[in-house]
Specification:
This protein is mainly α. The chain contains two helices and no strands. The chain has a domain at 58-113.
Length: 118
């Protein structure tokens, strides 16, 4: 089967030369490694998962507070631009939906982990 014309081009894969069929082949990729392995990342270099989650929830809370304050300013007559209130409330709504979706996915993943048979 090695003399078959179907397998002639396969020998050139991974080398810099063209195969015997005349089709140029791709250069060799080499080994693929992650630039940041978990053992090389320290707490000083990156945030912990809890810190990242706390920062994300803090920004959602700030967005909701901004929407609340612009709505209050609009109702009291202190806000002249209706678009500011609309943008702030839409932004906080989207962030809240994203937060609830992420929370739901984390709860599903946790449930699946606990249900795994060892």
């Amino acid at each position: 089967m090695q003399g078959s014309p179907f397998f002639q081009g396969i020998g050139g894969i991974g080398s810099a030369t063209a195969g015997s069929s005349g089709i140029p082949s791709m250069p060799s990729i080499g080994s693929i490694s992650s630039p940041l392995s978990p053992s090389s990342v320290s707490e000083e270099d990156g945030q912990t998962f809890g810190g990242l989650l706390a920062n994300a929830l803090g920004s959602v809370n700030e967005s909701m507070d901004a929407a609340k304050s612009t709505t209050g300013a609009l109702l009291s007559g202190r806000l002249d631009n209706l678009h500011e209130m609309t943008i702030a409330s839409t932004k906080s709504g989207i962030m809240m939906k994203l937060t609830t979706n992420i929370t739901s996915k984390l709860a599903q993943a946790t449930t699946q982990l606990f249900q795994m048979q060892i």
